[in-house]
Amino acid sequence: MAQIDAFFKLMNEQGASDLHMVSGQQPILRIRGDMEPVKYKVMENDELKSMLYEICPEEKIKIFEETGDVDFGYEIPGLARYRANFFMQKYGIAGVFREIPSDIMSCEQLGLPPVIAKLATLPKGMVVVTGPTGSGKSTTLAAVIDQANKLRKDHILTIEDPIEFVHKSQKAIVNHREIGTHTKGFAEALRGALREDPDIILVGEMRDLETVALAMEAAMTGHLVFATLHTLNASKTVDRMIEIFPASQQEQVRSTLADALRAVVSQTLFKRVDIKGRCAALEILICTSAVRNLIREGKTFQIPSAMQTGKKYGMQTLDDAIAELLRKGWISPEAAYTNCVEKAKFVQYLKQPPMDFTEV
């Protein structure tokens, strides 16, 4: 048993999402969004380096020493998997670990709208899940992939950096590939995927133009592609996927994306005020023919209006989702105001004037 495993067990017991091990500081847990120090001594660089290197594969140590940061996966059988990141900072080495539960929760258990589970039944196209880091994108995608795994006799291929949720083959065959271990990069893995007879491809992150282009190509050639992006809402996601290309190609890309895109799910995570825990507000864009036309014609600024009128298809805006959580008493008015789009709708719920002077 590695020395650091005791911290992972504590993390699991406390219900923490992340563990921070930083030279010159005590270990810190992120519990329901807040950073809580662990009652333990301050870790010095050499001691922490020895502890971290104990669980790091040799080839990853080599990359870390050459570049100053590295990602990899670590697993404690029977407990959980961890997404690990090591990086160098002013006072020495540091490591951040995100817990990935061994048990994959279903869409129903997560309380996701019914349309999210339906995404697993799509025959082809692209579904993009977006949101800031730590907003639960991987958890939502894992639930959708799990649904497909239970329902479809297909080949599911995941490409991640590193592998997060591990799916055991059920009706489907599931293969996991990790960047840096099983393949060089997302673009290389996607190129290879088109020759590996997949039906469903999960792309852990679309980081560059080439990956976006290959993901769109896969969606256009009869595959169902799930991918993530670090954008804040549905219309910004569409804009981001188009603007990553040179201006000379954007007209063609707009047309291709209109045909390929099936849905955009944008998540924001909130701390619950009624019980211990967190909940997600989801903005959902379903690409109906009307939405496709808006993308094709470059009228993405009209997408929020299309979501308002497309509720019968399962669409909802972020503000509507936040308003529903506020109505249930799950989140605070301050959190609702901070994360909403149209501030004027939520300012009435605040007991004091807004704290963020930039919104005035």
Structure description:
The chain has helices at residues 5-14, 45-53, 58-67, 114-118, 137-151, 186-193, 209-220, 234-243, 250-260, 289-296, 303-309, 318-328, 333-339; strands spanning 18-22, 28-31, 34-37, 69-76, 80-89, 92-101, 125-130, 155-160, 173-178, 200-203, 224-229, 261-271, 278-286. It has two domains: 5-101, Beta-Lactamase, CATH 3.30.450; 114-345, 3-Layer(aba) Sandwich (Rossmann fold). It contains 13 helices and 13 strands. It starts with a helix and ends in a 21-residue tail after the last helix. The protein is globular and about 60 Å long. By secondary structure, it is α/β, with parallel strands linked by helices.
